[in-house]
Design brief:
mainly beta, 4-stranded antiparallel beta sheet, two-stranded antiparallel sheet, globular
Length: 170
């Protein structure tokens, strides 16, 4: 079991080894890895970093620091995604996003991507790799009892990213 802080509201997460959903779990479904969905992004730091208000599925808001924005191309189009840091000692960037595949192939609410920090650190321009083949479903894709963060409006992409984890079908 674990205690979770969700915007000043606390939840207790209990895992049951004998739960029916766990016993009937039959694996995850992923798109085949595609090198076109592993892209180099330009890192544009915020000076100073700011706090992003991240909505959650339970109606609360998380105030998480956002150190900058990743700008990248898919095909001929440039997009931007803003990551947050999940904790003061975070060693990865956390991207909460939604794309057009949520309409029919992936979890409709959001998918998550963790990446390493940019090559020059968080406070200087640089580059980083966004490997969308590593997109994952949040816990709320599997249970109604999760308290997942939702993508901010700026991280709702008008493009289908056919990479990463697909929608779970029990």
């Amino acid at each position: 079991m674990a205690v979770l802080d969700r915007g000043g509201r606390y939840a207790l997460r209990i895992k049951d080894s004998d739960a029916a959903a766990r016993k009937s779990f039959h694996g995850l479904n992923w798109y085949p890895a595609d090198p076109h969905f592993s892209v180099e992004a330009q890192w544009i730091p915020y000076t100073p970093p700011h706090v992003e208000k991240i909505p959650t599925i339970i109606g609360t808001t998380l105030d998480l620091p956002s150190p900058g924005v990743a700008e990248f191309m898919l095909g001929e189009t440039t997009y931007r995604l803003e990551p947050v840091l999940e904790s003061p000692g975070a060693r990865t960037l956390f991207f909460i996003l939604r794309d057009e595949t949520g309409k029919d192939a992936t979890y409709e609410t959001a998918r998550f991507l963790h990446t390493g920090f940019p090559n020059n650190g968080l406070d200087k321009p640089g580059t980083l790799i966004l490997d969308f083949n590593r997109l994952e479903n949040p816990p709320c894709a599997y249970t109604a009892y999760a308290t997942c963060p939702l993508p901010p409006e700026k991280n709702r992409l008008p493009v289908a990213i056919e990479a990463g984890e697909k929608r779970y079908a029990p």
